[in-house]
Amino acid sequence: MDHSEYIAKLIGPAMLAIAAFILINRSQFERMAEQFAENYAVIVITGMGMLLGGIAIVQAHNVWVGDWRVLITVFGWLAGVGGAFRIVFPNAVADMAEGFIHNRTLTSAVAVGMALAGGVLTAMGYGSHF
Questions:
Q1: pTM higher than the cut 0.90
Q2: How far apart are CA 80 and CA 43, in angstroms?
Q3: 128: pLDDT confidence band, cut at 50, 70 and 90?
Q4: Which of 8, 48, 50, 129 is most buried, judging by how many CB atoms fall within 10 Å of its CB?
């Protein structure tokens, strides 16, 4: 198994689960996100995890090609940059989270996008291994 399939098998199902949580448990998601936005320690700690995870993905898979594998690379870069942003600017992240939480259209669109990307990664990672 190559790096692309391995990472897709990890990221894809996680993205599907997160998207399902957001879409199915809207009120729980909103309460959790409000708590997140109020706790700078959680913002910074999650930023550390995202930064490390993003760096790990980019180190193992910095592949810029015209197929599904670029989703992994983009995910790694977004996680790394997003994690660094959370660490350096927790106030801005809290403000952005507040705006995101209550914009149901945007939240739903992001969740659907995550579900689609997660579905593609899961299918490509597991392929005929289902």
A1: no
A2: 14
A3: low
A4: 8
